[in-house]
Amino acid sequence: MRRIDPREAHDKPLPTPDSDSRAYWEGLKDGRLLLQHCNTCGHVQFYQQALCRKCLGTDLAHRAASGRGTVHSFSVVHRAPGPAFKQDTPYAVLLVELAEGPRMISSLIDADPMSVAFDMPVELVCDSSNADVVLPRFRPVKLAQPHTSLDVQGS
Predict the structure, then answer these.
(1) pLDDT tens, residue by residue, 20-79
(2) I need a surface site. Which of 57, 82, 116, 146 has the fewest CB within 10 A?
(3) Is 149 exposed, middle or buried (0-12, 13-18, 19+ CB in 10 A)?
């Protein structure tokens, strides 16, 4: 068993891409959330795998998602799971239902974690953790403000 250096407790864990997920992580670096689409049965899946989870087919293609979704479930974390997350509390962990169907776990940014609500519309933000890793996070969708008579030109 590997001994853990106590200084590592302050480093957040980062993903290690493998052959199945490499395209996904590269897509995030380019600002795109890639989902796998099965060319055999049409199933859309997240997380990347070598086989379609519906038909077990291997003819899979990566396609960019819209980056839109809704909060299916969430939890606001007030007690950090370790020293690396202590300065982030409180933070919201989200289960986002993507517009394309799959659900993914992520976190909320650019908003008060106490403002999260079920079915809240969110949009993808590709957040650079460091030079090598970009993480998918979500922020609330800013709804368009209704026009008032002061907004209309020529009135």
Answers:
(1) 889 999 999 999 999 999 999 999 999 899 999 999 999 999 999 999 999 999 999 999
(2) 146
(3) exposed
Max alpha carbon distance in the chain (Å)? 74
The DSSP code for 94 is: E
Strands of the sheet with 68-77, listed across from one edge: 103-107, 91-98, 68-77, 121-128, 134-140
What's the pTM? Answer: 0.84
Q: Are 62 and 27 in contact (CB under 8 A)?
A: yes
The secondary structure element, H or E, covering residue 27 is helix 22-29
Phi and psi dihedrals of 52, rounded to 5?
Answer: -70, 130
Q: Compute CA distances 110 → 28, 73, 96, 106, 124, whole Å.
A: 18, 18, 16, 13, 11
Cα separation, 28 vs 34, in Å, equals 8
CB 122 within 8 A of CB 68: yes
Quickly state the pLDDT bin for 4 (edges 50, 70, 90). low
